[in-house]
Write a structure and sequence with these properties.
With 321 residues, this protein is an alpha/beta fold. The chain has helices spanning 2-12, 38-77, 86-104, 112-125, 127-152, 155-181, 186-189, 203-212, 232-242, 265-275, 294-310; strands at residues 17-23, 26-31, 196-197, 217-222, 225-231, 258-260, 279-284, 287-293. It has 2 domains: 2-181, no CATH class; 186-310, CBS-domain (Roll), CATH 3.10.580.10. The two termini are 50 Å apart. Bound molecules: zinc ion (ZN).
Length: 321
Amino acid sequence: MHELGHSLVAKGFGIPVREIILLPIGGMAQMSKKPKTPGQELLIAVVGPLVNVAIAFGLFGVGAVWLGSEGMLNAFSGLADSAPSLQTMWVMLTASNVMLAVFNMLPALPMDGGRVLRSVLSMGLGPSKATAIAAVVARVLAVAMLLFSLFTGQLMLGLIALFVFFGANAEAREEKMSGALEHVTVAQAINPRAVTFAPDTTMADAIQWLVRNPQPAFAVLHDRRLVGVVTRRELVTAAQEKGPYAYVAAAMKREVPTIAATVPLTEARTQMNAAESPYIAVVSGEEFLGLITEQELAQQAAMADVFARFGRPSGDRFARQ
Ligand SMILES: [Zn+2]
């Protein structure tokens, strides 16, 4: 219900939720887009713990009617030596909802409290600074949690500490990448020398190109119009199954997500994630301009980082494409 709370608010903001994953150390609602504003992130994050607060209040109400205030105190204090019963179930449900609400509000990214912290900081400092600060806070808390779990022997807490530590790293990396890709357009990232195939290119020919070219995916064009895309792995698998004289058309995927050339590269990344596609085709009307893959994203992010730190060299002949 906690994760459903996150999911419903996200959906209300038009953010698709792909799935909810429940693990022994906690749950995760997998969203295929980032919230548009800090305010949206704040609301999505805060509603999960609020669900637990609401459940705890409800259970307190039930307990008050059912057991009375003295009965509730007895149930809590007698938990350790009591046999399984409806009362012990009520105590544990109530206590775990209170604990879930409190624990999730620790300001440790990627936990809910960390997202709240990041979104509030972000309103004043912008997303990149806010994420960097929230990630530092999260790593400090994670180390403290890990030490505490080692001294007290609480394995679960130790696992959560590791999850927080690496989760905070991933959030920081993710924010750095999307910040870098904000100022590059899709058109600037296209490789104009990329190799393309025709539908009747044979596997034998395609494999020859594949070993001489590091492209992760190849567009298949017919009269300069995109008819499909084939990845390296799909080519190799198809060649092994169908032999060297089969056509590339038999290996390609015909459903290809597309994007306009003028939008920022972050948008290409968001749409690739949403479509769970390793590539997106850049088009201008009917005309195919090129493919964006993980490779283009990673390289553009690396270059943006270099230019941000050292400045863009003058006379850069690729600066205005
Ligand atoms: Zn949550």
